[in-house]
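Protein modeling request. Please complete all fields; requests missing the sequence field cannot be processed.
Requester role: graduate student
Desired output: 3D structure, token encoding
Chains: 1
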Amino acid sequence: MKNIRMILCTAAALVSMTAFAQENNNRDAKGKVVRGPYETNSIGSNWFISVAGGASAFLDNHEGYEFGHLTPALDVTLGKWLTPSMGLRAGYQGLVGAQDATKILGNQAGTTTYEEDFKYSYVHGDLLWNISNAIGGYKETRLWNFIPYVHTGYVRLTDINDESTDFKPHATNLYDNEVALGVGLLNNIRLANRVNAFIDVRYTNFSSRFHDWAIGGRMSQLTGFIGLSYNIGKTNWQRIASNAASLALAEQALANAQAQIAALKAAPKDTVVVEKFVAKEDDGDTKYVPLALGIPPITLFFEINSTELNVTERQHLKFYVENILNLDPERKFYLTGSADKGTGTQSINEKLSQGRVEKVIEILKNEYGVSDDRLILKGTKITDEAADPRLDRSVIIVH
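Delivered output (399 residues):
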């Protein structure tokens, strides 16, 4: 029992350390905790791989079995965070185990001690709950994340060396595959953007039939790990703007466009900068033609991971075509697509920026009849120029 008290005390100390190691809650300007909702990241984002080593001990509930010896343990896992608070993980745990028995059914030796050792493998799946993010709000730079979890899988024990076998004539197996389940506590300690240290304490239950008891019984295992994990793909999360905020942005964009048109109609036509030449009818010479296009570029915004224009931006584009683009049927327009640098990988962002500008060109040609020679694809870019990354997911039309 000394060993189990030692491990349980260690686990309690870890919980206490977690309480003091947390940073301040993630709060808004008014001091209120912010918890989401968050945008769904791509399938390649928020993965992690981890390797850990530690010690474990087994305990059988059959008469005579004591708490097992501490033996080395290995754990290798691959996981993915689905949200800042919920994640999945799959892994392998194993190496060796050992324990003593002072009394075996059918043996009257009483105090005779028998030693049993074996190899084991546990293939497990885990459901993770990041309670730090769930309660304190997501914070990428938080030093310590407190993550309880449940786990289940199959455990297999082999190469059993049992000194008490001669006293168990009813023996049926020397190994077995048993369903296992349990709970655990993962403590993630942030070392860098992609690297974490962690302390993992895991409790597991499964059948003890590997002891050769035909009736089975319950076996438990307590394991403590220390290891490192590495984050793969995008590592952070973007909060979704509320419907009210999105509507306000759309209304502001429409108001700006209407103000630009009003200023255009009120401006003297001879003050507009002229860039176009046309031939005079009488002698074939050229002359300047005043253009009523002295307005800034237009910007169309896209949702994250999308090359489709939503209803609001399509209305914005329609307003632009009907009130600006058609003012000069021969003028050329230059389009640039962009993606925000902070979301997704380089290759994904390149495809998004290209796809967005091609989509706008397609709409202008197919839905509004704008000819190919008037629409010039100026280029694409991946940028973090705007304070809000949503403003970097765009197509800019310069005229």
